[in-house]
Amino acid sequence: MHLKHLWLPAIAFASMAAGVTGNAQQPATPGGAQDGVAALTQSLQKGMAAIRGYQWVETTSISLKGEEKSRKQQACLYGADGKVAKTPIGQPQPQQPAAGGGRRGGRLKQQVIEKKKDEMQDYMERAAALIHHYVPPGADQIQAAKAAGRITVTPQPGGTLKLVISEYLKPADSLSIDLDPATNRLLALAVNSYLDTPEDTVTLAVQMNTLPDGALYAAQSTLDAKAKHIRVVIQNDGHRPVQ
User: Fold this and answer.
1) Which ranges in 77-175 belong to alpha helices (H)?
2) What confidence tens digit (pLDDT) does each residue in 173-186 have?
3) Domain ranges (residues) in the chain
4) Which of 16, 101, 130, 172 is the 20 to 30 Å CA partner of 221?
């Protein structure tokens, strides 16, 4: 089954650069958590401003049950409105014709296929919209989580830190941020959430990378919608300054 027009515009955040200072402490430490939250929000703003000076190529592939169904490339850069503008590169994949299209059975089969594609596209759009609420992290949600004691910071092997925000947007969800306190770099983001019920899991893993001037960007973002056996992988490369 070919997945027509199934892509994730809401994951434009994949170009987002971000960082945080090494001052983050456990929420119970007076002042320390507040300093870490302030540094995080400031670094997010600074990183997002820096990446707007670049253009790059975004490659999006969509797989169903492990089989790639769609792949597209787009040239990306920020517009004057602060949003990412995308221009398709190359020709879109042709839609697979339905077998037996000249018969009544073929027409019914085609209708079933189209309905399934519509349902899948709707599902992915909802998943994309949900993820958009998590990345980049919102200052208000972070502050609320800190005040409620829902932020933990755990040292990791190699000297990095993992900041985990529980119930960031929904009950039983989580947003985790991997940090390098020595260089003030955000290394990775991870989201565990769901759509209608906790069993309808949607996860997102974002690996960050560094440009020559120190700006960070999402090198690869992987979204898994396990209930539908769908995986979306977005890769960003070829960054160069906007002329």
Assistant:
1) 104-132, 139-147
2) 999 988 877 776 77
3) 9-241
4) 172
